[in-house]
Amino acid sequence: MADLTRRIAARLIRLSTLLLFACATPGVTAQTFTADARPWLAAAGAAGGDAPAGFAQARVARNPGAAQAVPIGEKACIACHQLESEHFTHTLHALGLHAAAKADPSVPVCETCHGPGSEHAKAPTQKGSIIGFTRESGTPIALQSQTCLGCHSGGARDHWLGSVHQRNDVTCSDCHNPMANFSGEGLLAKKSVNETCAQCHTDVRVQFDRRSHMPLPEGQMSCVDCHNPHGSTGKSLLKTDSVNETCYECHAEKRGPFLFEHAPVRQNCLNCHTPHGSNEHALLVTSVPQLCQQCHSGLGHPNDLQTPLSLGSGTHPDERLMGRGCVTCHAQIHGSNAPSGPKFHE
Ligand code: HEC
Ligand code: HEC
Ligand code: HEC
Ligand code: HEC
Ligand code: HEC
Ligand code: HEC
Ligand code: HEC
Ligand code: HEC
Ligand code: HEC
Ligand code: HEC
C-alpha cells in the first residue's frame, strides 16, 4: 500500500513538473498536455513501473563509439532528417523533451537517445558515430538497451538483466519504436502487443488459432496479461511466481480452498491444460478419458479398456465415452467442497 502511494505521488510530481513546463511554454496549454499525458500515466501505472528520471533531467547519451563528439542540437539533426523528425513530433518523448527543452535549453532532444552528433554530422556513413538502435547500426546491443535503461530501469524492468530476452540479444527497439506512434500506447514497434510478439513467436501466436484458445484473437487479452517481456522471477517470463498463480488471476474460483483437492490441479494447471490454445475441448492437452487415464491407470473402474464397441452406438456402450466422459460423473474435477464430494462428483 505504501508502495502504491509512493508511486502515485511520484507520478503526480512528474506530471506537475511537466505541466509547469507546459504552462511556461507559449502554444502548449495545460489542457492539451493533460490530454496527452493521460494514456501514458495509465500505461505506466498499470505496468506498475517505478518512476523513470523525468524529461527535465534528460542528458546527452554517452556514446563510447564517438568519444570526441559534442552535441549539435535538434535543429542540426532535423536539417538532414526531416521525415523522421516529423514522425517523432507527436510521440510522448517528443512532447516531454520539447516542453523540458523550452524551459531549460540545456535539455537535449534527439541526442538524449542518440548521443552527441558532431562526428556523425561530419561523416554520416561512419558506423557507430551515432547511437543507432538497429543491428546494422554498429552500436553494440548492450549500449542500445543501456541508453533506454538510463531513464527506464527498475519497476517492470527490474529483471531485465539476465532475462531470456536480454541473454538472447533482444533489445528494447525490437519491441519499441519511439520514433513514431505505431501503437495506441506503449510506443510499440507494431500496431499491438500481440503483433509485436508475433514478429518472433509466430509458432505461439498460431496456437491461439486452434479450436479452443484463450480469447486473445478476440482482443480480450494480450501476451502481457501473463508474461512480462522485460523479465521476471518466474519461469517463462511469467508475471507471477508460478503457472497456477497466473491462472488464478482471472480464474479465481479455481484457487479454492477446497475440502477435497485434486492433487494435479494444485500442482500445475498445465498437467491438463495448454496455456495458449488446443485442438481439444477446453484447452485440454488430450481428450477425456485418455487425459484421466494417463494417471489413473489402476485396474478396475477408472481404467476399463475402451474399444469402438464401447461407443454409444456399440454393443456395450460405456459411460466413460459418452457426454463429457469421466467428468460427466466427476464433474467437480478442480476440487469439491461438498461433504460427500471426495470423488469430485459434486
Ligand atoms: C549532414 C547530414 C546529417 C546530419 C546533420 C545528421 N545526420 Fe543522421 N544520418 C545522415 C545520413 C546520410 C544517414 C544515413 C547513413 C547511412 O546510410 O549509413 C544518417 C543516419 C542516421 C541514423 C541511423 C544510424 C544507423 O546506422 O542506424 C541515426 C540514428 C541518425 N542519423 C541520427 C541523427 C541525429 C540524432 C542527428 C543530430 C544529432 C543527426 N543524425 C544528424 C545524415 C545526417
Ligand atoms: C526516446 C529515444 C529517441 C529519441 C528522443 C529520438 N530517437 Fe531516433 N531512434 C530511436 C530508436 C529506438 C530508433 C530505432 C527505431 C527502429 O527500430 O527502427 C531510432 C531511429 C532513428 C533514425 C533511423 C531511421 C529510422 O527511422 O529508423 C533516425 C534518422 C533518427 N532516429 C533520428 C532522430 C532524430 C532526428 C531525433 C530528434 C528529432 C530522434 N531520432 C529522437 C530513439 C530515439
Ligand atoms: C531522458 C530519459 C528517457 C530516455 C533516455 C528514454 N525515455 Fe522513454 N520515457 C521517458 C519518460 C519520462 C516517459 C514518460 C512516461 C513514463 O514515466 O513512463 C517515457 C515513456 C516511455 C514509454 C511509454 C510510452 C507510453 O505510451 O506509455 C516507452 C515504451 C519508452 N519510454 C521507451 C523508451 C525506449 C525504448 C527508449 C530508448 C530508445 C527510451 N524510452 C528512452 C524518458 C526517457
Ligand atoms: C520482447 C518485447 C519487449 C522488449 C524487448 C522490451 N519491451 Fe518494453 N514493453 C513491451 C510491451 C509489450 C509493453 C507494453 C506493456 C503493457 O502494456 O503492459 C512494454 C512497455 C514498456 C514501457 C511502458 C510501461 C512501463 O513498464 O513503464 C516502458 C517504459 C518500456 N516498455 C521500456 C522498455 C525498455 C527500456 C526496454 C529495453 C531495456 C524494453 N522496454 C524492452 C515489450 C518489450
Ligand atoms: C526480436 C525477437 C523477439 C520478440 C519481438 C519477442 N521475443 Fe520472446 N523470445 C525471443 C528469443 C530469441 C527467445 C529465447 C529463445 C526461445 O526460447 O525461443 C524468447 C523467449 C521468450 C519466452 C520464453 C521464455 C522461457 O524462459 O522459455 C517468452 C515467454 C517470450 N519470449 C515472450 C515474448 C513476448 C510476450 C513478446 C512480446 C511482448 C516477445 N517474446 C517478443 C525473441 C523475441
Ligand atoms: C493466459 C496466459 C498466457 C497468455 C495470454 C500467453 N501466454 Fe505464453 N505462456 C503461458 C504459460 C503459463 C506458459 C508456460 C509456462 C511453463 O511451461 O512453465 C507460456 C509459455 C510461453 C512460451 C515458452 C514456451 C513455448 O510454448 O514456446 C512462449 C515463447 C510464450 N508463452 C509466448 C507467448 C506469446 C508470444 C503470447 C501472446 C501471443 C503469449 N505467450 C500469451 C501463459 C500465457
Ligand atoms: C487475463 C485473464 C486470464 C488468465 C490469466 C487466464 N485466463 Fe483462462 N480464460 C480467460 C477468459 C476471458 C476465458 C474465456 C471465458 C469465456 O469465454 O467464458 C478463459 C478461458 C479458459 C478456459 C476455457 C476455454 C474453453 O475453450 O472453454 C480454460 C480451460 C482456461 N481459461 C484455463 C486457463 C489456464 C490453465 C490459465 C493459466 C495458464 C488461464 N486460463 C489464465 C481469462 C484468463
Ligand atoms: C486433472 C486435470 C485438470 C487440471 C489439473 C486442471 N483442469 Fe481445468 N479442466 C479440466 C477438464 C477435464 C475440464 C473440462 C470440463 C468439462 O468438460 O466441462 C476443465 C475445464 C476448465 C475450465 C473451463 C470450465 C470451467 O470449469 O470453468 C477452466 C477455466 C479451467 N479448467 C481452469 C483450470 C485452472 C485455472 C487450473 C489450475 C488451477 C485447471 N483448470 C487445472 C481438467 C483439469
Ligand atoms: C497428472 C495426473 C492426474 C490426472 C491427469 C488426473 N488425475 Fe485424478 N488424481 C491424481 C492424483 C495424484 C490423485 C490423488 C490420489 C490419492 O489421493 O490417492 C487423484 C485423485 C482423483 C480422484 C479421487 C480418488 C480417490 O481415491 O479419492 C478422482 C475421482 C480423480 N482423481 C478423477 C480424475 C479424473 C476424472 C481425471 C480426468 C479428468 C483425472 N482424475 C485426471 C492424478 C491425476
Ligand atoms: C457413471 C459415472 C462415472 C463415470 C463416467 C466415471 N466414474 Fe469414476 N467413479 C464413479 C463413482 C460413483 C465412484 C465412487 C466409487 C466408490 O466410492 O466406491 C468413482 C470412483 C472413481 C475413482 C476413485 C477410485 C476408485 O476406483 O474408486 C477414480 C480414480 C475414478 N472414479 C476415475 C474415473 C475415471 C478416470 C473415469 C473416466 C475414465 C471415471 N472415473 C468415470 C463414477 C463414475
UniProtKB/TrEMBL annotation:
<feature type="domain" description="Cytochrome c-type protein NrfB-like">
    <location>
        <begin position="110"/>
        <end position="177"/>
    </location>
</feature>
<protein>
    <submittedName>
        <fullName>DmsE family decaheme c-type cytochrome</fullName>
    </submittedName>
</protein>
<dbReference type="InterPro" id="IPR053875">
    <property type="entry name" value="Cytochrom_c_NrfB-like_dom"/>
</dbReference>
<feature type="signal peptide">
    <location>
        <begin position="1"/>
        <end position="30"/>
    </location>
</feature>
<dbReference type="InterPro" id="IPR020015">
    <property type="entry name" value="Decahaem_cyt-c_DmsE"/>
</dbReference>
<keyword id="KW-0732">Signal</keyword>
<dbReference type="Pfam" id="PF09699">
    <property type="entry name" value="Paired_CXXCH_1"/>
</dbReference>
<feature type="domain" description="Doubled CXXCH motif">
    <location>
        <begin position="262"/>
        <end position="298"/>
    </location>
</feature>
<feature type="domain" description="Doubled CXXCH motif">
    <location>
        <begin position="213"/>
        <end position="255"/>
    </location>
</feature>
<dbReference type="InterPro" id="IPR051829">
    <property type="entry name" value="Multiheme_Cytochr_ET"/>
</dbReference>
<dbReference type="InterPro" id="IPR010177">
    <property type="entry name" value="Paired_CXXCH_1"/>
</dbReference>
<dbReference type="InterPro" id="IPR036280">
    <property type="entry name" value="Multihaem_cyt_sf"/>
</dbReference>
<dbReference type="Pfam" id="PF22678">
    <property type="entry name" value="Cytochrom_c_NrfB-like"/>
</dbReference>
